Structure formats: structure tokens, C-alpha cells
Amino acid sequence: MKKGYVYILTNPRKTVFYTGATNNLGKQLFEQKNRISERLTRSYGCNELVYYEITESLEKAREREEEIKSECRIGKETLIERFNPEWKDLSGDLLAVKKR
């Protein structure tokens, strides 16, 4: 079974969060970095990956996505800060690994 990913993107000012789920995080990041998909990410510039989880399936990722979306902003910030205290854009690390 193919793994799933749930992720949070933000804009450079960290004022907007976009939570999504996919079975191909590398492709999703490429599309969002290059403004190919998702009107919200294009409109608000949400292209910095600040959080992600790997799940056993896309179905589990979608379930987790809904859990995260139901959190208030402070809950999402806490989740991000535990995983990525410096709020670095992690997409470069993931895309670099994929290219190797």
C-alpha cells in the first residue's frame, strides 16, 4: 500500500496556513512551489512547507488532515513548533532528497 502524507504550508509572513493530504509529497510541493495547483496556495503564496507527517495510507492522511484542520490557529502553531521550532521551509530538504 502506498504511503500518505499530511502537510502544512504557510506563506513567507506566516499569516496563512494551508493543510493538505497527498500520496506524493514531492510532486505536490513541486506543483505548489511553481504555482501549478490550488488556488489558495497561489492566492496567498502558501509555498513554504513547515510541517508534514507520513501515514500508512492516503486514507489515514486525509483523516489526519481533517483533525489538523479542526484545530484552532494556536493548535496548528503548537504542532508546527514541536516539529519545526525554527519554522524553516522543509521543502528544499525533501526535494533535494528526491533528486538524489
Automatic annotation (TrEMBL):
SUPFAM superfamilies: GIY-YIG endonuclease. Gene3D superfamilies: GIY-YIG endonuclease. PROSITE patterns: GIY_YIG. It comes from the Bacteria. Pfam families: GIY-YIG (PF01541). Belongs to the UPF0213 family. This is Excinuclease ABC subunit C. It comes from Kangiella profundi. The lineage of its organism: Bacteria, Pseudomonadati, Pseudomonadota, Gammaproteobacteria, Kangiellales.
